[in-house]
Amino acid sequence: MLYFEIILIIFLLGFIFWVSSHLYSSIFHVPYVNSSDQAIHDALRLAGLNKDETLLDLGCGRGDALIIATRDFGAKAVGYEISPLPFLIAKFKTLRYSKIKVYCRDLRKANENIKNADVIYLYLLNSVLDKIEDQIFTECQSGTKIVSLAFKFPKHKPIKTISTKNLGRITDISLYKK
């Protein structure tokens, strides 16, 4: 009986952590949503990500774009995720990749990494893009490419837009360049 109670307590604590992690990110920032591997590949190809360039993923979730950038494109990758559970999953999934760094921080504290990024990958709501647009376009270096899956910056016009399939739907990917 004690064994069952211990398992139940561990399960309940895990469930509470999972729910509170999602509530925190949904209420204060952006809800955590995966993107498909196809959409990530299409976005990184659109950006022309090359070997030894640096990808910055603001709101990296479980780190899928970071892994694809490193494994399939040979790039270094840096991710920021504010929600604790997806951050822990990303940390675990990226342990074997020495070219990946993941931080559990607000993406607005990514100033130094924005300056060093060759490509910035975003899958964030329009309301968040509106809040960080000035920071990104001011902080990033000339020539930095920014790809946004599904959502667009309000002040800047994309230089190219393509369609991809993400989560069973046709979605646009917008490419910007400073």
Explain the overall architecture.
The protein is α/β, with parallel strands linked by helices. The protein has a single domain, classed as Rossmann fold, CATH 3.40.50. It has 6 helices and 7 strands; from the N terminus they run H-H-E-H-E-H-E-H-E-H-E-E-E. The protein has a 7-stranded mixed sheet with strand order 3-2-1-4-5-7-6. Helix 2 packs across helix 3.
Q: In total, how many beta strands? A: 7
Mean pLDDT: 89
Q: For the report, how would you describe the main beta sheet?
A: 7 strands, mixed
Order of helices and strands: HHEHEHEHEHEEE
CATH structural architecture: 3-Layer(aba) Sandwich
Helix content: 40-55%
Q: In which order are the strands of the major sheet placed?
A: 3-2-1-4-5-7-6
How many domain regions? Answer: 1
What is the chains' assembly state? single chain
Radius of gyration: 17 Å
> Which structural class matches the secondary elements?
alpha/beta
Tell me the span between the first and last alpha carbons: 63 Å
Low-pLDDT windows of residues: none
Content of β-strand: 15-25%
> CATH superfamily, called what?
Vaccinia Virus protein VP39
